[in-house]
Design brief:
TolA/TonB C-terminal domain, five-stranded antiparallel sheet, two-stranded antiparallel sheet, 9 strands
Length: 182
């Protein structure tokens, strides 16, 4: 009799523990949007402006008013460049704008250093920019554009403003958080 009571108690407990409510799961239907109609795109027209310049090592470039780069074919420096090692007063950099990363360089994870030699002319303008060390994906070109916006006071030698070459470096580093923000 005890055995029957124990077995019936076990049976009741199992029935309660493993019983189902009798409800069936509902099927959820997600509406599918109709396919989008894609209109054929017209091919882009070719711009009439000059194509962009790709900066090369040991080549001279000059700044233009529209922000584009122009390669200098004449290898002689404009004006007189002071060759003395120590001018009376060195050139003073007032502003050195930072270059921007290109999307392509960010996507490819390009990092490094761009080294430029900049000719600071006696009239307070950037005369020439020579690439000493460059980077791919448009970073060298962006560094040249940033160097074109440098503001400075010219060097003085013998009481007169003189042109001087100055080495300028731009460091391109990707922040770790920017990898996920592409």
């Amino acid at each position: 009799m005890k055995l029957i009571l124990v077995l019936s108690a076990i049976l009741v407990c199992n029935c309660v523990a493993y019983s189902q409510s009798g409800r069936r799961g509902q099927t959820i239907v997600v509406p599918v949007p109709p396919p989008e109609v894609v209109e054929p795109k017209t091919p882009p027209t070719q711009p009439t402006a000059t194509p962009s310049v790709t900066a090369q090592k040991n080549e001279d470039y000059r700044c233009t008013d529209d922000g584009s780069l122009a390669r200098v074919l004449d290898t002689t420096a404009e004006g007189v460049v002071d060759a003395s090692k120590k001018p009376d007063v060195r050139a003073q950099i007032l502003t050195k704008p930072a270059p921007v990363y290109t999307k392509e360089a960010r996507r490819n994870g390009v990092q490094g250093l761009v080294v430029l030699k900049v000719l600071l002319s006696s009239d307070g303008q950037i005369s020439r920019i020579r690439v000493q060390r460059g980077l791919p994906a448009g970073l060298t070109e962006n560094a040249i554009r940033a160097a074109c916006r440098i503001k400075f006071k010219p060097a003085m030698s013998g009481g007169q403003a003189v042109s001087r070459w100055l080495t300028v470096e731009y460091v391109f580093r990707l922040a770790e958080s920017s990898i996920f923000g592409l």
